[in-house]
Amino acid sequence: xxxxxxxxxxxxxxxxxxxxxxxxxxxxxxxxxxxxxxxxxxxxxxxxxxxxxxxxxxxxxxxxxxxxxxxxxxxxxxxxxxxxxxxxxxxxxxxxxxxxxxxxxxxxxxxxxxxxxxxxxxxxxxxxxxxxxxxxxxxxxxxxxxxxxxxxxxxxxxxxxxxxxxxxxxxxxxxxxxxxxxxxxxxxxxxxxxxxxxxxxxxxxxxxxxxxxxxxxxxxxxxxxxxxxxxxxxxxxxxxxxxxxxxxxxxxxxxxxxxxxxxxxxxxxxxxxxxxxxxxxxxxxxxxxxxxxxxxxxxxxxxxxxxxxxxxxxxxxxxxxxxxxxxxxxxxxxxxxxxxxxxxxxxxxxxxxxxxxxxxxxxxxxxxxxxxxxxxxxxxxxxxxxxxxxxxx
Length: 393
Fold this sequence. Notes:
With 393 residues, the chain is an alpha/beta fold. It is 42% helix and 18% strand. It has 2 domains: 10-50 and 89-203, Rossmann fold (3-Layer(aba) Sandwich), CATH 3.40.50; 57-87 and 208-391, Rossmann fold. Helix 9 (199-207) crosses helix 11 (238-244), helix 10 packs across helix 11 (238-244) and helix 14 crosses helix 15. The longest helix is centred in the N-terminal third of the chain and has 16 residues, at 24-39. The relative contact order is 0.16. The model has no long low-confidence stretch (mean pLDDT 95).
């Protein structure tokens, strides 16, 4: 069984392109050209130079000695929080802005939840001098105010999504509508491994720099390219896709995807898609998503603005259904406490999304010689108010 995408745009049973007819030309042009453009030597040269000189890659692979001692195992943190803009999202937006330029696009749209993808998109648009429109749920705009300010300072127009739950799902809907209305000049920079083919594969390829670096960094530090476990949080799942990518076919490396259980898996306020989800179609792809018996999408919940997506990328749906990855669910309370623990043990304040991954050590025991890599997907600056309010700091 393969865990990469097949020629028809599917991961096992999941994926495809279920799109309105008006979007077909956009998607088809992208599908026909993305692999050829990405493999072009000039593209690769410019992409890698920007990752090095602008983003600041490679991001360090840091041995967290105090955290390791606490849990009696070897824990490494892949420091994506140290990238320019503070998260892994910039890897993908740099790639997609270069792709958009080569497709002749002069206007960029994007959706964002936690705001990190919006900031990363606004950043590369400023870098390249391209018009930028960001759709963001009204609720997320309120709880991620620092990132909204950053986007505006970078020259982006931030448009609130006022429908539905006024979060990430609704922002994505608004971005899709915009793209239908502006098909010729506009490229939609999707922020995660979601949406119609070729987006899940394209985003995963741009993010695969994460696992590419883990391999040689681990070789330097441990004498092996293979950890025993790679752990990453999953909303749509782009940081997990990047961390897992070069290990997908190597079953000796165990993959753990961590979802948001919110106030409890069965509390009615959760985003644990793997457990609560059923097969369905959202935002152009067939995947697992939270829905009612008659197929209406259920509103997800998480204290983290980046994990409250009602679905999961088709790669992750396949990893779950096939058993290739273990899926775990962490509550708000567990995540917040794990974030505080990392801050005080290692001097690193993580994004609340990442804090979900750090909380699994209280649920799962590891051997003392296990090598564990956690993708520390973002820094906690954007979440400081949430931490302050939660802990009454």
